[in-house]
Structure formats: structure tokens, C-alpha cells
Amino acid sequence: MTKTITCRLLQVGTAFCLLWMMTNAQARQASLQEQAQQIAQKYMLVDTHIDVPYRVQDAWVDVTQRTDDGDFDFPRAVQGGLNLTFMSIYTPAELEAEGGSFELAHQLIDSVEALAARAPDKFALVRSVADAEKAMKDGRIGLAMGMENGSPINHDLKNIRVFADRGIRYITLTHSLSNQISDSSYDDNHQWNGLSPFGREVVAEMNRNGVMVDISHVSDDAFWQALEVTRVPVIASHSSARHFTPGFERNMSDEMIVALAKNGGVIQINWGSSFLTAQANEYSTAYWELEKNWLEENGLEEGGPEARKFREDYREEHSYPYATLADVVDHFDHVIKIAGIDHVGIGSDYDGVGDSLPAGLKDVSAYPNLVAEFLQRGYTEQDIASILGGNLLRVWSEVEAYAGAQRSCLPGFCLP
Length: 416
Ligand SMILES: [Zn+2]
Prior knowledge:
Bound molecules: zinc ion
Strand content: 5-15%
Order of helices and strands: HHEHHEHHEHEHEHEHEHEHHHEHHEE
Helix content: 40-55%
Number of domains: 1
Structural class: alpha/beta
CATH architecture: Alpha-Beta Barrel
Radius of gyration: 23 Å
CATH topology: TIM Barrel
């Protein structure tokens, strides 16, 4: 409107006026993108869930260099302004019964250590908030570790110390099946109606050892019980808002998000499309059901070449309803509306959600696009800094401080 009036005042022709308006909009977009780039580089940018260890375990590639496939490598991470990532030490749910998750977790931790050791000028292992800040100052990408699935604890509380000593700084209590610690949002078998008795001890022991409690993947009952037991804020390392995906228990309901905020915690938004829109969620549910039945009928293994081909054919016939960058930011908006600016961050699930990422957020070079959308929606630089990393670092600091205080305590007596 204003522009049209300006054009009339200037008495210029319609074509010229349109061109002028377009150039103006492009210039605004370019300056927004530039500002976003600067903000992404300036502030600590943390992503709490990237599945590189499993990706390189399956098919090794050198992520210290630009890779053709996958969502993460060093050059793209630098471009995106990433400073700290929690590498996911993921063990499949089935290993709880079969055995081997303890060993696999150690093996994956070895691989993260090897990656950092092989490129010490690019990556730094991070065990504390201070380490993360130092890595950023040195211009290296910080690699922290989060254990996805508590199954490697192997029914022994002492193993929490063992893995904490190796650098694990959060543990996702369970994954896709109910395990020794907790029921899962993906599993109808709610054997514990929440946390197991051992799971309650695990949460307390994680508090004592400075390991953040991650409630992504757990059932709703388990979430509420974890909040009762924990003495410090908890995180959801890669979950989104259930408000947009009704009935999808893997995401968090409004009530849970508000309670998480009251506990001081943070929800790190997952960028997989099925976590973001009801349409993509329904597509995935329908597809997985179909694939499961087809594999069963044909006596085939999950994840094998036949399954891959089946998926490709299905995608050809039924185009995938990718979510958009705006959908992602809608999740941030929603959490901020109900819980405030201090309780949300990034848990992209890069290298973990396959070909389901929204356009504009396809890999770790894309964080500035998220920032640009925040700017477009009127977020201040300080708000954005909180979202990018400030909130997560606050939680981690509190968890560290609590564990530190516990260490200076003898039974019935605390050192000053
Ligand atoms: Zn996950």
C-alpha cells in the first residue's frame, strides 16, 4: 500500500514501480540473510542431536571433509555457524534383549574420539560448558556425546559413572521399546506404567553424575515420573510440539512443555517432517505399517536392500509431504507462546531422519535460514541467542553445578 502511494507520488509508471518494489524486497531479503549469517556465527549455536556415529558406522565417510551425502560434515558445519553438537551414541532397542548394547555404546564413543583425534584443528571433544566455550573461542567444533537409549547401562548403576567418565553428558532413557529404565512412546507394552523402579534410581544417579536426563522417546507417564524424581532441569534432546501432530506421543503435549519449563528444562525441536506436520506424520505412520507388513509377508529384514527399494518405489508413487521452514519456526513460536523464550532450542536429528527434512533446512549449513525466519518474525538478537544455545547451556550449567555440589558431600555432611 505505502509503496503504491510512494510510486504515485513519484509519478512513475506501473511497470517501473513493480520493478522498484521487487528490487527493494530482494535487497531487504539479502540484508536479512546477511544479518542472520552474522548472528549464527556470533553466538554459541548448539544442536543436541546429530546421528553421525551411526552413519559412519554403517558406511564410513570422512566427515572432516565435505561429503556428498549425509547432513553433517566439518565444512558445512562451519558454514552454518554450528559450535557444539551432541553426537548420538545410539543403540537399537532390540539389543536390550539380544545383548551387546554396552559394547556397541563403547565402540561408538571410540569412533567419536577417533574423529576428534584425527582432526584436532577442526574438532574438540567437549565434556563441560567450559570446554564448549573454549572450543568456540579456538574456532573448533565441539563434539559432546549423548547416549540415545539407556540400555547400555545394563542394569548396573555403576555404569552411569563409567559412561560419564567417557564423556556421555545426556542419556535418553529409552528408545523405541520399553526397556529396563522406562516405557517408550513408540511401544504399546507399557510394562512399568512409566519408569521402572531401577529407572527412578537411574534418574537420581544421573543427577549425581552430571548427566542430563533426556525425556525424548519416553511415554507420557515416564515423563511425569522423571520430573518427580529429578533434582535438576531435564531436556528433550529431539522432540517437537504435539499440538501440530495430535495423538503422536513421541512429541510433547502443551501440558508437558509447560511443566518442563517450570522445571527449568528445555525442548530441542526435531526437524524431521513427521515431527512437524500432521500430514507428514500420517504419511509416515501409514508407510511404516505397510513396510512392516510387506517385510513380514516376504520374510525380509528391516533396513535391507529390498526394504530400501520398497521405500523408493513407494516414494515415487506417493510424493512425500515435506514440512517447510515456516512449519519448523511455528513449533518454536508455539513453545515460546506457552512456555516463554527460555525453554526451547535445536535438536535437528540431522543424519537421523533420512530424506524427510524441510526445504531450506537440509543440512548443517542451513542454521542461518532458521535465524533469518526468526528475524522475519520479529525476534530480537537476544531471543535468538537464547534459542541457538543459551538455553541449553543454562540447563547444562545447572546440571554440572548440582553434580559438583554432590561430590563435595560426605554422608550427612557437605564441604563448604
Ligand atoms: Zn531419536
